[in-house]
Amino acid sequence: MTRFSLVIPNLNSGKVLERAIQSILKQKYPAVQLILADGGSSDQSLEVIERHRTLFQPLIQEPDSGQADALNKGFAHAGGDVFGWLCADDQLLPGALHEVASIFERHPETDVVAGASQHVYADGSRQPIHVPPDAWDQMRVRNVFNQPSVFWRAKLHRRLGPLDESYHLAFDWEFWCRMQNAGASLRISKKTLSRYHFSAENKTSVGGRRHVDEAFRIISRYGPFRGRLAYAYRFLYLHFDLKGCMDHPPRGSRPRMLAYHLTWQGLRLAIGPKWLRLYNLNFASKQERGIRWWKD
To answer: In sequence order, what are the residues at sequence separation of 6 or more whose Cβ sits closer than 8 angstroms to the Cβ of residue 131?
Structure first.
């Protein structure tokens, strides 16, 4: 039987931590090592942790330098065959671990399993998000995985090394890119494995320019055209996206929109339509401008 090691990083997420833990318990999967890495919470997390203390193998309670550091501390204790993590505000959906275990067991050549996820936004609206068939190719310019729906073999993790703690937001994306670079075999599940919550204040919902800066670093390193596409994306973001030209409907001034269309056509000729279509920073632009980012 496939043995899972799942890490929950937590810092003052007591309002939702119980939900995350229960979503794992309700899997009724008999071989799960659950590791909690708490960075020094002072809220009701302490009550939740105490209530479930015997579940955690181990329980890590010490200051950390951020979520990637907490996860690295947790994975250092992981002894399962397959790894994954669940942020304290997210959930695994019923049957997720059985589905993932079945895929790994039926396809021993598979290194990574990525499934669909249901996004839940601050206004309560929900949206199913599926992994595209060409996920590994797209990964070089945009994160097409839903982190709580991704699981990978322990041997791959040990070969790649720890998460890059220099990233605040995109350490998962950078890790996926390393997987792809290492030639990891990916298998996609159409099953919705998780519920991915975006509150009004969590770091993914308010990242704004930090999303863009970290995306620039990743695309510079892993992207096509020896990373030069990162410069084109940043130019589009700064000069047109932040000015509303890429909103639906567009909010840019007429001269700005004309310059945008001319630039777009020039880039289309220079790098091809595929890479332009994969530009995906409008959500960050809307966050930076303080407008609703999850729907047009």
So the answer is: 114, 115, 116, 144, 145, 146, 149, 188, 189
Q: Is residue 199 part of a domain?
A: yes
3-class SS at 49? helix
AA identity, residue 277: R
Looking at the chain, the whole-number percentage of residues with pLDDT higher than 70 is: 99
Q: Find residue 28's DSSP bridge partners.
A: none
The rounded distance, in Å, linking the Cα atoms of 116 and 159 is 26
- Please state whether the predicted TM-score (pTM) of the whole model is above 0.90: yes
Domain hosting residue 122, numbered range = 4-204
Q: Are residues 222 and 94 in the same domain?
A: no
179 part of a folded domain: yes
Distances (CA, A) of 126 to 47, 105, 117: 30, 32, 10
Q: Are residues 129 and 228 in the same domain?
A: no
- 43-71: average pLDDT: 97
Domain end position, chosen among 175, 204, 233: 204
In order of 228, 230, 237, 280, 288, the CA distances from 221 in angstroms are 9, 9, 19, 17, 25
**Total count of domains within the chain:** 2
**Distance separating alpha carbons of residues 136 and 154, to the nearest angstrom:** 20
